[in-house]
Specification:
It is built from 16 helices and 14 strands. The chain is an alpha/beta fold. Helix 3 runs parallel beside helix 5, helix 10 packs parallel to helix 11 and helix 11 crosses helix 12. It binds D-xylose and nickel (II) ion (NI) (2 copies).
Length: 430
């Protein structure tokens, strides 16, 4: 019997739909800005939050009683059955996973790797008939105590080697399943205290690991994109992949800026003191926008709360940047989001995704309408028009310009930035 017994596949039923299990805005076949919504949004379910997270918080442990919780291969198989049931109910085109989400840890590295290979076979068999494909795979290099001082950045070279071997096994699994991307999130690649930390050495170790990942990708003929996921802190006090701009500097330093793109997460942007659209605009501008982890942070708690997205105005500005970047290529919209720990029912897991998919659909439609209207782009073009006007004022060096400023008696006239008018304009669409 399915864990989701009694919940039928969710379909688009329009604004008059009844109940929790229908899409009111996400019509996968509806064409928006030249592509179907399914092609634009490329939704993915995150295996870890939906199937591996026990519902704990810093003051209490497990609240969820999932029948597949346990550390045997039988549990892992039961978990896979439930996961593929949810993928089918939602009709999502993609899912994402870490090794540790899908297989039990073995007594040795070799046993863990064999467990992963066995689950990979099961996924491959299910994917032959299921609609769902793999958006990305990744290695969990942060939960086990061996990684408490980092993975690539660990002071112990044995941990670096163990992490490298683990990444290889996860890249192999991702390749085998036809993954569109491979992700590296450096949860413990950072420090708790500078007092015991050699920053330069740790950055070099991280650069070497990433370069080896890129080499291995080419060696095995993996055609997906390698993605790094920025996050400023949590679990460590400071993480090296702080934000988009920091990651770009890192990629440049190690010569990887043409090989690696970024997976940008809403909650991580907030933790870094940015807005999601800032991070996306920065990545678009730097040419490294790869994929998004869609979620929402609580604005009061200051934690990475990984809630399902719920704000159409915020999501609209995010998809505006994605559309401006030309849309996703190998990337997609991964719901790196978990239920609140009191949301115990199977139905909660389904409804959370249904609502999030509808919010994204509304955001996408608003973004497409804003772009089509062109109001923001016109306002920007007008604001910078002086630069397009030509003229020789800016020719030459500082001295030449300075001379012209005096000769021509140039006195700049301040102009309105029109922020409130632009905010009002955006509100017409969201
Ligand atoms: C944690 C990260 C993690 C990555 C995958 O905050 O968002 O879930 O997306 O390792
Ligand atoms: Ni996160
Ligand atoms: Ni994430």
């Amino acid at each position: 019997m399915s864990y989701f017994e009694g919940i039928a596949p969710v379909r688009y039923a329009g604004l008059d739909a009844d109940g929790d299990f229908a899409f009111r805005h996400y019509d996968p076949a509806e064409v928006v800005a030249g592509k179907t919504m399914e092609e634009h949004l490329r939704f993915a379910v995150a295996y870890w939050h939906s199937f591996a997270w026990p519902g704990g918080d810093p003051f209490g442990g497990q609240t969820f009683a999932r029948p597949w919780f346990g550390d045997t291969m039988d549990h892992a198989r039961a978990k896979a059955n439930a996961a593929f049931d949810l993928f089918a109910i939602l009709g999502v085109p993609y899912f994402c996973f870490h090794d540790a989400d899908v297989r039990p840890e073995g007594a040795t590295f070799a046993e863990s790797r064999r467990n992963l290979d066995e689950i990979t076979d099961i996924f491959a068999a299910k994917m032959e008939t299921a609609k769902v494909k793999l958006l990305w795979g990744t290695a969990n290099l942060f939960s086990h105590r061996r990684y408490m001082s980092g993975a690539a950045t660990n002071p112990d070279p044995d941990v670096f080697a163990y992490a490298a071997a683990t990444i290889k096994s996860c890249m192999d699994a991702t390749h085998r399943l036809g993954g569109q991307n491979y992700v590296l999130w450096g949860g413990r690649e950072g420090y708790e205290t500078l007092l015991n930390t050699d920053l330069g050495r740790e950055l070099d170790q991280m650069g070497r690991m990433l370069a080896m990942v890129v080499d291995y990708k080419h060696k095995i003929g993996f055609e997906g994109t390698i993605l790094v996921e920025p996050k400023p802190q949590e679990p460590t006090k400071h993480q090296y992949d702080f934000d988009v701009a920091t990651c770009y500097g890192f990629l440049k330093k190690y010569g990887l800026e043409n090989e690696v793109k970024l997976n940008i997460e809403q909650g991580h942007a907030i933790l870094a003191g940015h807005s999601f659209e800032h991070e996306l605009a920065m990545a678009r501008t730097l040419g490294v926008l790869g994929s998004i982890d869609m979620n929402r942070n609580d604005y009061q708690s200051g934690w990475d709360t990984d809630q399902f997205p719920n704000s159409v105005p915020e999501v609209a500005l995010a998809f505006y940047e994605v559309l401006k970047a030309g849309g996703f290529t190998t990337g997609g919209t991964n719901f790196d989001a978990k239920l609140r720990r009191q949301s115990l029912e199977p139905a909660d897991l389904v409804a959370a995704h249904v609502g999030a998919m509808d919010v994204c659909a509304r955001g996408l439609k608003a973004a497409a309408a804003m772009l089509e209207d062109g109001g923001l782009e016109r306002a920007r073009a007008d604001r910078y028009a002086g630069w397009d006007a030509g003229g020789d004022l800016l020719d030459g060096d500082l001295a030449a310009i300075a001379a012209r400023v005096e000769e021509r008696g140039i006195e700049p006239e301040p102009r309105s930035g029109r922020q409130e008018r632009l905010e009002n304009w955006v509100n017409r669409f969201v």
